[in-house]
Amino acid sequence: MDIEALRIFVEVADAGGVSPAARRLGLAKSIVSRQLARLEAELGVQLLARTTRGAALTEAGATFRDHAARACAEIDLARETLLPEGELCGRLRVAVPLTFGPTHFATVLAEMARRHPKLQVHAAYSDRFVDLIAEGFDCAIRVGYLADSNLVARRIGPLQGRLVASPAYVAAHGLPETPAELASHQALMQGTEAWQLMEGDTVVTLRPQGRFKADNATALAAAALAGLGIAWIPDGITAEHRASGALVTVMPRHPPPPAGIYVIRPPGPHPSRKVRVLTEMLVACFAEPGRS
After folding, report:
1. Which pLDDT does position 290 carry in this prediction?
2. Same fold for the pair 3-82 and 161-256
C-alpha cells in the first residue's frame, strides 16, 4: 500500500475535500483524486462520499482514517530514526502571523529548510488564528497574549507593545488617565480581545469597545494614524511613528504587561522532532539575553 496515498487520504479527510487538501499538499486536484481512487480500489471500499460541498467520510473511511494517520506517523518516526543524526524529513506545516512573519520569522524558516534538504517546509502567513488540528498544521507561531486553550505553548521570546493614539485623536477626545477611563474612548482592536494594563503591581483586564477592527497590527496602526482611536500595537510597528510624533503613547503610567512570541502545537506529551528543531532555532533567535 502506497504511504503517499495514505497521507493524501488523511489530508482530504481532515480538510473536508479534495480542493483544500490539494492546496495544503501543493498538488494538483487531479493527482489527489487519482490517488484516492487507487486507494479505494485497492481496499475495495468507499472511503469518501463526494458532495458539491466537498467530501465526507463514510463509516469505513472514518475507521480507516485513524489507522492511516497512525501508519503515517510511524513511518515518519522510522524515517527520522534511520536518517543521520540531526537530519529531518517529511513535511512541516506551520502557521505564521502576517504581522512580523515575513520580516521576523521567514528567515528562520528558510534557514531550517536549508539545513534539512529532505524536509518540506510549508508556511501559511495570516493574522487569523488558525485551528491547528482541523486545518492540519504541525504548529503555529503566535505573538501577543495567549488565550486559554488545550494547545501546548512554548514561549520563545519577548514582545513589547503599548497603547498609542494620534495627536489629532488626543486633541479631539483627550487622553485617559486611568484604565477605567478607557471605557469612554474608541478602541482599535483585532476582534473582541481583552486588554491588560498594569496598575502598580496588579494586572487589570479590560474589555474595550470600538467600531474599527482589523486582524493585522499594521492596519491598526494606520487607523490610529488616521485619528480613529486608541490601539495596542507592538513597538516594532509604531517605533518610527512615535519617533516622528505621528503617534503618542497613551497612559505610560499604566503600560501593558510584557507580551511574548510563542510556538503553539496540538496537545500531546512530546512534540515531533521537526517542531522541536524549529522551536529551538526560534529560541536561539529571539530569547532575551541572559534567559535560558
Report:
1. 45
2. no
| Interatomic CA distance for residues 161 and 158, integer angstroms | 10
User: Cα torsion at 236, 242, 244, 246 (round to 10°)?
Assistant: 110
Q: Which fold would CATH assign to domain 161-256?
A: D-Maltodextrin-Binding Protein; domain 2 (3.40.190)
pLDDT of residue 11: 84
Distance CA 38, CA 68 (A): 15
Burial of 157 (0-12, 13-18, 19+ CB in 10 A): middle
In the predicted model, is pLDDT for residue 206 greater than 80?
yes
| CATH T-level assignment (fold) for domain 90-159+260-286 | D-Maltodextrin-Binding Protein; domain 2 (3.40.190)
Pick the CATH number of 3-82 from 1.10.10.10, 1.10.1740.10, 3.30.200.20, 3.40.50.2000: 1.10.10.10
Q: Are strands 259-265 and 152-159 parallel, antiparallel or unpaired?
A: antiparallel
CB atoms under 10 Å from CB of 85, counted, come to: 4
The answer to whether 260 and 155 have CB atoms below 8 angstroms apart is yes
CA-CA distance, 89 to 176, in Å (whole number)? 53
